[in-house]
Amino acid sequence: MEIFAIETGNFKLDGGAMFGVVPKVMWNKLYPADENNLCNWALRCMLVVEGERKILIDNGIGDKQDEKFLKNYYLNGSDTLKSSIANLGYSFDDITDVVLTHLHFDHCGGSIKYNEKMELIPAFSNATYHTSKQQWEWASNPNRREKASFLYENIAPIKESGQLNLFDSDTELFPGFVAKLFNGHTDGQVVPHIHINGRTIVYCADFFPSAAHLPMPYICGYDTRPLITLEERKQFFKEALDNDYILFFEHDIFHECCDLEDTEKGVRPKEFFTLRDFLIEDKV
Ligand SMILES: [Zn+2]
């Protein structure tokens, strides 16, 4: 198995919204905001290559949204989904599976493109799209709080194409690739746990958007059930420390990965590194 980080550019979101009840004087030290209180966030996906299978986890905002939509998110950075996949020697047609952690637009927007007739179709024509049944149903009938994040155009074309696979509990989707479900951020968020050379790499998605979200109360204002997030974190930290998990961050512009240690203040990053350095150094 080989795994790669896939950078798809960055976008900006309000720092206060991203850190919930934590005061700015505290989160700003860990993740600085600009003069408009906006923080810059990565849109970092992952490609898992296992023999003939090319599994893409999440795919960023994509390039089909109009300017009116995008102007709120200040897209920046030179990487795109296409260029990052091409740099590894692959094209969209090579992707056999797309695992969507959840259906918020910044995680699944690259799933869909316009064809020549300006119809919306899956961007990965040969792929099966996987996500949880709970998340699919949740996004298909969105509540008012999350409605702005679930775009109809990101969801409907996948179903119409017949390329959708839904699962409803923790599942080994592929050998060494376990999809676990979490419910604090949104219903049935999929958090992939990938086993490689005796270690487990966790694709954190919005469970921990960044390393700055590791302290217990640093929970996104976007989470629909923050008390559930707290419980899920408690359970997860125990498991992560016991098994020396490596965390991979989708939105952290400063840090790609870290391992964890238990400190007097709680669980904190032990060491930061990139996925590439980690695999090259063969610390696994
Ligand atoms: Zn989200």
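^ zinc ion complex. The CA atoms of residues 162 and 228 lie 33 Å apart. The first helix runs from residue 15 to 19.
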